[in-house]
Design a protein that fits this description.
CATH architecture of the largest domain: 2-Layer Sandwich
CATH topology of the largest domain: Heat Shock Protein 90
Number of helices: 10
Order of helices and strands: HHHHEHHEEHEEHHEEH
Distance between the termini: 48 Å
Number of strands: 7
Domain Histidine kinase: 170-388
CATH class of the largest domain: Alpha Beta
CATH superfamily of the largest domain: Histidine kinase-like ATPase, C-terminal domain
Catalytic activity: ATP + protein L-histidine = ADP + protein N-phospho-L-histidine
Structural class: alpha+beta
Number of domains: 3
Radius of gyration: 41 Å
Shape: elongated
Strand order of the largest sheet: 2-4-5-7-6
Enzyme class: transferase
Largest sheet: 5 strands, mixed
Strand content: 5-15%
Organism: Nonomuraea spiralis
Protein name: histidine kinase
């Protein structure tokens, strides 16, 4: 059962009550003036001189009785008119109360319409489309000043994001040159004809391993910067089944070395297709498969399934292992987040694999869902907008 929530006190509600109260007070004042004028006019009519009334009786007593009777009739008429006026005023006040609320709501909505447009436009703008602007039209009032201020803020944010991405890309490119020089120097030192001491060879192997790790880290930085900055204009229709099977075939040696068992019965379904950048989608699937192989235990297993419901194409990769904490799993999509070295048999991860997967999926309008399996292990699900199966494939 859905829990009842108290309605929020919105600005429109407050403005509606304020405008409604103003309209209602105006109606009350108008009715009060009308009643005072009406009752005053009736009292004046009672004080009309007796000479204006026709006097038919001849005797003074009969005339006095006639005047008394007319005054009584006039008093009764005045009381009836006063009651009718009060009843009419009460009905008019009730109608005006409802009408005041309706008019107040309409006017409040009219006043807040530019703010609602600004709010809707601001919600559409994210880190991926900071180039968009509100560009509010209208007179130079407080609302337009607010929209212009938000546009200036978006421009500063766009420049900041662009500068950050340029810095990451440029730094990664520049750092690759000294890394290549260091690797070449190691190779030259080890290739000399003189015998190389065992400790020197071990140190060179250790340095080469660390250089490879830094190179993978820089490659991850470049991929993140490219994914966050590139416009996905070169879209092609790709099969999640083909991407997954290609990634498995390319890593057959690693799977054999880890004595891993792959269950890919669900990948035979070739109906899960999507559209996007082929290079980025391939890298995304490769990272997921690499994560499943690297972060596994000796003699473990990997289960893959590619499915679609017509609107969403999904690739699910599951691995076995120990029980994981869901709070820690939720942070794996962030850069440099790991579950610990005890879950990996190689320890060569850079902590950027799943963050790259999440970024590529988001750039294609998809999502990455990470779940700790109740039986132990990890479940990685990538959901992307589904595309129609190409005609040649369907044939």
């Amino acid at each position: 059962m859905r829990k009842w929530r108290r309605p929020a006190h919105t600005v429109r509600l407050r403005l509606t009550l304020l405008y409604g109260a103003m309209f209602l007070l105006s109606a009350v004042g108008l009715l009060a003036i009308t009643n005072l004028v009406g009752l005053g006019g009736t009292r004046v009519s009672r004080s009309a001189p007796p000479e204006a009334l026709p006097v038919e009786p001849a005797t003074l007593a009969a005339a006095t009785d006639r005047i008394a009777w007319l005054q009584a009739q006039l008093s009764d008429t005045h009381a009836a008119q006063a009651r009718q006026l009060l009843i009419g005023s009460a009905l008019a006040l009730a109608v005006m109360a409802v009408l005041s609320l309706v008019l107040g709501r309409l006017i409040a909505g009219r006043v807040l319409r530019p703010l609602r447009m600004i709010t809707a436009a601001t919600r559409r703008i994210s880190a991926d489309n900071l180039h968009e602007r509100l560009a509010a039209q209208g007179p130079a009032d407080e609302v337009k000043d607010l929209a212009d201020t938000i546009d200036e803020l978006l421009e500063r944010l766009e420049n900041s994001f662009a500068a950050q991405r340029r810095f990451v890309a440029n730094a990664s490119h520049e750092l690759r040159t000294p890394l290549a020089t260091m690797r070449a120097s190691l190779d030259v030192a080890l290739a000399k004809p003189e015998p190389v001491p065992v400790q020197t060879a071990a140190l060179a192997d250790r340095l080469r391993t660390e250089l490879d790790q830094v190179d993978r880290l820089l490659e991850g930085f470049l991929m993140l910067a490219r994914t966050q900055h590139v416009a996905l204009t070169d879209r092609t229709t790709l099969s999640l089944r083909h991407l997954a099977t290609d990634a498995l075939d390319a890593r057959a040696a690693d799977i054999t070395a880890g004595n891993l068992t792959v269950h890919s019965a669900g990948v035979v379904d070739d109906s899960a297709w999507t559209q996007g950048n082929g290079t980025l989608l391939t890298r995304m699937i490769d990272n997921v498969i690499d994560n499943a192989i690297t972060h596994n235990h000796e003699g473990g297993w990997i289960r893959l399934a590619a499915t679609t419901d017509g609107t969403t194409a999904q690739l699910v990769v599951e691995t076995g292992g120990r029980l994981l904490d869901q709070h820690q799993v939720d942070r794996l999509a962030q850069p440099f987040q790991r579950l610990g070295a005890d879950r990996t048999h190689s320890g060569n991860g850079s902590g950027l694999g799943l963050s790259i997967v999440a970024t590529i999926a988001a750039a294609h309008g998809g999502t990455l869902d990470l779940r700790a399996r109740p039986e132990g292990g990890l479940r990685v699900a990538i959901s992307l907008p589904a595309a129609a199966v190409p005609a040649e494939v369907a044939a």
